[in-house]
Amino acid sequence: MNINTVHIFSKPLSYYSALQLDGLIAGNDALLLIGDACYDFASYNHLSDKRYMLENCALARAITGNIEFNLINDIEWVELIDNAKKSITW
Questions:
Q1: Quick one: three-class SS letters along 12-70?
Q2: How many CB atoms sit inside 10 A of residue 70's CB?
Q3: Residues whose CB is less than 8 angstroms from the CB of residue 10 and which lie 6 or more positions away in sequence, other chains included
Q4: Which residues 6+ apart lie within 8 Å of 47 measured at CB?
Q5: Are the C-beta atoms of 28 and 2 separated by less than 8 Å?
Q6: What's the rounded Cα separation, in Å, for the pair 19 and 1?
Q7: Calpha distance 82→77 (Å, rounded)
Q8: Are 37 and 14 in contact (CB under 8 A)?
Q9: Closest among 24, 51, 28 to 40, alpha carbons compared
Q10: Is 8 in contact with 32 (CB distance < 8 Å)?
């Protein structure tokens, strides 16, 4: 897995509208949705093809089905961050 930066989002995408995220997320970056960002997962689809969602957050919000995000547990979350060059929590 070649990931430069893991971008961690905890709020709906509209919360970050002033940041122009399209220009800040590179092709080899990954997204990780946690918390209430999971409710708005469809809005994040265009930002990266490496998309992850914390499984516990999805379950707590009753998000199921084909969401086009890889559901990961806490151990996999740690591995994702460990294998990336850096992470940014927005």
A1: CHHHHHHHCHHHCCCCCCEEEECHHHHHHHHHHHHHCCCEEEEHHHHHHCCCCCCCCCE
A2: 14
A3: 33, 34, 35, 36, 37, 89, 90
A4: 7, 21, 22, 25, 31
A5: yes
A6: 27
A7: 9
A8: no
A9: 51
A10: yes
Q: Are 44 and 29 in contact (CB under 8 A)?
A: no
Q: What is the pTM of this model?
A: 0.91
Specify the DSSP class assigned to residue 84.
Answer: S
pLDDT given for residue 14 in this prediction: 94
Can you give the pLDDT at residue 1? Answer: 61
pLDDT tens for residues 43-52? 999 999 999 9
Contacts of 80 (CB under 8 A, 6+ apart): 3, 6, 30, 32, 52, 72
Structure tokens at 35: 């918390």
